[in-house]
Design brief:
Blueprint lengths: L6 H7 L9 H21 L11 H19 L5 E4 L2 E4 L10 H25 L10 H6 L7 H7 L7 H6 L1 H15 L1 H13 L4 H18 L3 H17 L5 H4 L2 H6 L17
Antiparallel strand pairs: 1-2
Helix pairs in contact: 2-3, 3-4, 8-9, 8-10, 10-11
Amino acid sequence: MKITIDKDFFEKTILTATSATADVFDSLCDQIETAALDAVIFFFPVETKAENLNEELLKEVKRYICFKTFYNGIPLLDLVLTPTGFGVVSNQNLAPASRDRVDSLRRLVGNCRDESVDRVLEMLPSLKDWGDTIVARFRIGSLFYTAHQLRDYAGKPEALRSDLHQLGPAIAEAEEIIQSHISKELFKSLLEKIRKNTLADDEIIVLHALRRAVGFFINDKLPAFRREIDDVVNVIEDNPDKFPTYKDSTAYKVKHFEHYQNDKDDTTYFFG
């Protein structure tokens, strides 16, 4: 799959890069192509065709490519290498921006890039057959796969993807504990249905509760974490037919195993 970005789209996405000429866009063309290739590899299996993407998804992927390109290109746009070292391109009509303003712009563009990643990941499960791919298992391998989820469930309104990566070990630890209570089979099934966008209403309720539980865990609110898990276990125990994956799991069978009763009406009844 090949995704192309034209000057008009790039400048509408990155207003700072707007130019009366094509100089800025032309200087970044190679980086745009590289970012586009990286985006395809990151989000899609090799067999995906651009024409199969809906307009909204394709637009968001292209926005991500623009943000990533500009973020990587900002430090290079006004620098030239001379025999005596690096210099700043001079312009008699414009004063160079301060280092702080450039750094602020780069942080903003980086945040926009990460927000775009989250929006793409939220849309991908609606893409036909995407949820069955290896890429899907990599991108959605946890209950928390966007920074939005940290904001919604973990009380972190300013969370970015960098926070998601930093909290990855704690999230993984919480999910291991969750699996020991609801079974690995049910946990795996929930992730598969997230990727395929096929969660039933009862499963959505459980998913929200589990995300709240992880939020409590990473904020060191362990009593609340345990209560939330207990509530989930009660829900699935009271409604086993709504959670057949759990009902068929080893954890369920162990929990509901009945020892043999020595009944006198049984043909194998033992006297004694």
